[in-house]
């Protein structure tokens, strides 16, 4: 029978994904960047939608939530997993609403007033059965996947708008997004990059070798020299692990010092972060007892560059509402 | 001036006769005398940069500018000669004109006395050069007050002009004369720092010396090797090691026949200092110590017997170490302990002997506190500090500098050591200190810098680029998870490694400086320097 086979196949895949996540660990695992994790999570969710047994949207959401919680528990520091799950949940809600009738679309949070006062859809059952729902949801998830595949390129395309010639740019650690951004700009412009090595893992070394192979003039400095060198830096361009709902960052160790030094010299701090890194959690430093990451408050950040363009940190809450439904903030 | 142009080069007596009647010619006469005197002075005091020689240089520059003016105004404008030099030299700074006005204002008797004094000094210098050292100092002292406000032309030190080929050639010639090998730069230098040297640890200067070295005393060779390999590190340790090595040199020294100890010993020390400078650039504290020793040696009276002179010098050095380093540390510890209260969490960076001493003393005095030691790659000096503190029984935490913003909310005070304190209030210290001060300021944690007064330096600096030390770039290479990413960095043309040693902290990040003279704000450093100079 195709049913049970598909189910066992599905559970196998889920299990293997979970074990991958557990081993991986915050991107230092076997070549797993956040983009890959996001793509794999979404692909897995699409598979779940296709192969699991559900009759109404509510069931589907329950299943996704359940699997989602397990995935998040496997690797709590990898927030892209949770973000993708919330995105898919929102997709399901939207598709459901569209199937029921377009009246629900106008209920989208259009204004700040609605954001603060609205409580979401009036009826929460999601019990109605629509035959086309599955196909619609899968189609929407496919769109999401295409979007994910193009994020790095979309961000890199904006590079020339932000980097001029003969600049000195500083970065820290290893971020694939920032790397692609700089490499794209280097095709047309000549500039100098200073990489802070970011001890103890020293991922900055990898970044430096990769950038210098692309022909960019690169210098590696120790973390201790960040402030000493900052006076000659024109821009600071970094990647991040997570963007928080208040516009702050959860980024690699040493980023807060870098941000403070940039603020002192009034150097703009630009964060290259694709939209799937936006996380609806508002974390304070005290919660995260994990010195692998730093919390950077939003007042130290000048600009976010994402695949849909550039935004100020104060705009992040808006994007949050477009990507996720408030009910899904707590899975 | 036209007359003096004609009589230029004639016998001195004629000039002297004329000078009795015309004050303006005397200025030219003085010029000549001063020029001769300066030539003698320059030969002796090559490396000294005290105000006297600068001032003389400045006067020489002035005189040089005035001379072409005098020559230009030779066609008869005699009555207005005095006034002509004043408006004519447009490029000459305004401050020269008051000094120029001073000279005609002096009475002829004074000028005569000065001339006599200069003649005496010349005669003495022709005989035994020792006189010159003593004489120019008193003659220039009365002129010191007006020249303090004049712009001082300082010679740039060689080690910040590496990109200038002329300076390098001069250095090579000097080292050849002193028979010291020249150390060559290593590796690709980041363009922002092309004006500084960058040496490799693996190629110490001592490999180019023959054994046994006849030019350099073996204690100095050993010291140079210890410096370049980082075995002796830290500004106090380096100064003390230097002074001990000099004591050994003095003990083994014998005056050659027909030479003065005070003159010859200083000359003997010069190649040693060049050698040590090549091994590792001298620190500000070492520079001050060397100045002191040279002064002491020069002040030895000529009739002093050799044994007596040597023992006097040895005791001077002992006294210097005792006063400026050991007793200063005790005084600073006494002041600092007042600032440490029970329950404090103190943050320290790297390994500063003074800060370690303070913490150990405070612990002996039964203060209850705990310490957070911050460390940074590639030197990882914090481990040494950690070892010393834990041995005493102080409870410590250890973090790397990238985690500083994470632990700073728990910290109540930050104690930092200094390599030198600059005249504009900036603190020169191990790289990373300014970063810690910045983050501490952002969290409103008080920052206290501990520094002895012998480390105060007359230089000014506002950033960490113009004068710094570049350490071996290979030290940044590290192996993580079996892969060494930067192993072949030399082969990649656009990749550079930067290993800075020092950085400067602006005074607004520092709340208090604790010195042996008391607790002062950062901006009072030039006041202390002024007081010190007057004392000496």
TrEMBL record, chain A:
It comes from the Eukaryota. GO terms for molecular function: guanyl-nucleotide exchange factor activity; translation initiation factor activity. It is found in: Cytoplasm, Cytosol. Gene3D superfamilies: Translation initiation factor eif-2b, domain 2. Belongs to the eIF-2B alpha/beta/delta subunits family. Acts as a component of the translation initiation factor 2B (eIF2B) complex, which catalyzes the exchange of GDP for GTP on eukaryotic initiation factor 2 (eIF2) gamma subunit. Its guanine nucleotide exchange factor activity is repressed when bound to eIF2 complex phosphorylated on the alpha subunit, thereby limiting the amount of methionyl-initiator methionine tRNA available to the ribosome and consequently global translation is repressed. Component of the translation initiation factor 2B (eIF2B) complex which is a heterodecamer of two sets of five different subunits: alpha, beta, gamma, delta and epsilon. Subunits alpha, beta and delta comprise a regulatory subcomplex and subunits epsilon and gamma comprise a catalytic subcomplex. Within the complex, the hexameric regulatory complex resides at the center, with the two heterodimeric catalytic subcomplexes bound on opposite sides. This is Translation initiation factor eIF2B subunit beta. The gene is eif2b2.
Automatic annotation (TrEMBL), chain B:
InterPro entries: IF-2B-related, IF_2B-like_C, NagB/RpiA_transferase-like. One of its GO terms (biological process) is central nervous system development. Residues 1-150 are annotated as: Disordered. Keywords: Cytoplasm, Initiation factor, Protein biosynthesis. It is found in: Cytoplasm, Cytosol. Residues 16-32, 46-58, 103-132 have a biased composition (Basic and acidic residues). This is Translation initiation factor eIF2B subunit delta. Component of the translation initiation factor 2B (eIF2B) complex which is a heterodecamer of two sets of five different subunits: alpha, beta, gamma, delta and epsilon. Subunits alpha, beta and delta comprise a regulatory subcomplex and subunits epsilon and gamma comprise a catalytic subcomplex. Within the complex, the hexameric regulatory complex resides at the center, with the two heterodimeric catalytic subcomplexes bound on opposite sides. Residues 33-45 have a biased composition (Basic residues). Acts as a component of the translation initiation factor 2B (eIF2B) complex, which catalyzes the exchange of GDP for GTP on eukaryotic initiation factor 2 (eIF2) gamma subunit. Its guanine nucleotide exchange factor activity is repressed when bound to eIF2 complex phosphorylated on the alpha subunit, thereby limiting the amount of methionyl-initiator methionine tRNA available to the ribosome and consequently global translation is repressed. GO terms for molecular function: guanyl-nucleotide exchange factor activity; translation initiation factor activity. Its main location: cytoplasm. One of its GO terms (cellular component) is eukaryotic translation initiation factor 2B complex. Belongs to the eIF-2B alpha/beta/delta subunits family. Transmembrane segments: none annotated. It comes from Cyclopterus lumpus. PANTHER family: TRANSLATION INITIATION FACTOR EIF-2B (PTHR10233), TRANSLATION INITIATION FACTOR EIF-2B SUBUNIT DELTA (PTHR10233:SF14).
